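[Discussion] Sanity-checking designs against the backbone

I'm trying to build intuition for which residues belong where. Below is a structure token string of 265 positions. I'd appreciate it if someone posts a full sequence so I can compare it with mine line by line.
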């Protein structure tokens, strides 16, 4: 019985020793925190980053970075640890990038270009540099930078802060004798119309009056009743004369100032 147990134990130990000598898949990767591969392609991350592998980096042995936030495990260690090729490892990267053998490549910041990107944790990062339309809020800049404070309106500014964004309040425009929403979380009280305008259905309205007309009737609009223009007496010594072009009579200067108009309403 004891001999059988001893043989079983020796067999299991031998199996473990045999596993130590087996080379692992050179593309084996230890993923970054929270990463997931794209459906059907384990070499592409969920956000579309294409992972490097041991062969593309020229690394036979070591744990270089895969360029997507994870680490590779290259296990062909016959000739010891081989650092990754910086010409490959630094593509699209910046700053210090692990070479897989305990050292780093200095990839500089050139990969980030001059478009405002900065190097952050080995990759080019585009921080938030301006508030834009943000108003009265604190914006995270990202890329390891402190947050950006976006102030509210100052003296002379016409905008207000509404839900963290600059907002230009609406004005009354043609509205009258009513209260309207300003579109920025507030209200605007619109005053009554000023003569000769009237307020009709909440809008400033200019009625059509008789003017110089001295006969007939006009529809002034703006909800007002018909106006009888023959009651419109011509001022001074003006005469009520028919205008063939307008097809109605109007008050016009007396062509004979020394006389009295025969028709003067």
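Best answer:
Here's mine. Compare freely.
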């Amino acid at each position: 019985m004891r001999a059988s147990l001893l043989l079983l134990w020796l067999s299991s130990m031998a199996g473990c020793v045999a596993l130590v000598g087996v080379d692992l898949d050179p593309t084996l990767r230890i993923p970054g925190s929270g990463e997931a591969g794209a459906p059907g392609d384990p070499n592409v991350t969920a956000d579309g980053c294409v992972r490097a592998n041991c062969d593309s980096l020229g690394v036979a042995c070591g744990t270089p970075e895969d360029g997507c936030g994870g680490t590779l495990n290259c296990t062909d260690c016959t000739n010891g640890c081989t650092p990754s090729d910086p010409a490959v490892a630094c593509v699209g990267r910046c700053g210090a990038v692990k070479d897989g053998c305990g050292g780093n490549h200095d990839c500089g910041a050139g990969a980030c270009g001059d478009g405002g990107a900065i190097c952050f944790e080995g990759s080019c990062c585009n921080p938030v540099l301006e508030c834009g339309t943000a108003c009265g809020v604190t914006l995270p800049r990202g890329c390891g930078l402190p947050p950006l404070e976006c102030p509210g309106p100052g003296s002379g500014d016409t905008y207000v802060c509404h839900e963290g964004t600059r907002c230009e309040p609406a004005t009354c425009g043609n509205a009258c004798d009513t209260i309207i929403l300003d579109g920025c979380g507030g209200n605007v009280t619109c005053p009554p119309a000023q003569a000769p305008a009237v307020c009709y259905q909440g809008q400033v309205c200019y009625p059509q009056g008789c003017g110089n007309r001295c006969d007939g009737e006009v529809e002034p609009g703006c909800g007002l009743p018909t106006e009888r223009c023959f009651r419109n007496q011509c001022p001074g010594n003006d005469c009520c004369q028919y205008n063939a072009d307008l097809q109605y009579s109007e008050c016009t200067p007396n062509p004979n100032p020394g006389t009295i108009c025969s028709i003067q309403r």
